[in-house]
Design goal:
Elements (H helix, E strand, L loop, with lengths): L10 H19 L4 E2 L1 H8 L3 H10 L10 E2 H12 L5 E6 L3 H10 L6 E8 L7 E3 L2 E5 L3 H8 L3 E4 L6 H11 L3 E4 L12 E4 L2 H12 L1
Parallel strand pairs: 3-4, 3-7, 4-6, 7-8, 8-9
Antiparallel strand pairs: 1-2, 5-6
Length: 209
Amino acid sequence: MGKEKPQELPGKTVERLSQYRRILYNSIREGKANIYSHELAKMMNLTPVQVRRDLMLIGYSGSQSKGYVVKDLVALIGRIIDSDKGQKIIIVGMGNLGRAITSYFAGKRDKLAIVAAFDNDLQKTDRVVAGIRCFHINQIKEIVHKEAVSIAVLTVSPEATHDVAKKLLEAGIRGILNYTSVPLTVPEGVHLEEYDIVTSLEKLAYLVK
């Protein structure tokens, strides 16, 4: 089993590694010690060849008789995609979606922690919302620097998206998960993931029509 982190993995590979780990955590809870590539593939609608290719890319190969050792594979995926010191996240926009994301993610990963939330609604600021202290949006730079935050989840209104994104970039945020319907452009060195539920639903509608 390899232990060195590859120089760089394709984004889609990292996504699948995260999904493998989620399945493997469930396997551990079920008392399962070993798992085969065809089992992982079936649960993710992939081919066993794709699973084996991904895991060989990170230096892991199982045995034909026993498959993969679940705990070993979980540990290796963690060393590959997690930061040694962990990383801190902020949620910007504490409407229904922001609160739902905050509540859902709490405690899900040891190396990723939501440390603060932001909103411009004075009814929400200076309060604990979904278990996280909510600050005014104008305090983003201060808190990002104080807490050494690297990632932001953006759930603000469409009309506020560009202004808030600018604040995040000026504060030094290096990764943005954009849940708004407004596409963003970020400078080199900043990583952007955009999730649009309308696009996802339209894709499904096309596939099932």
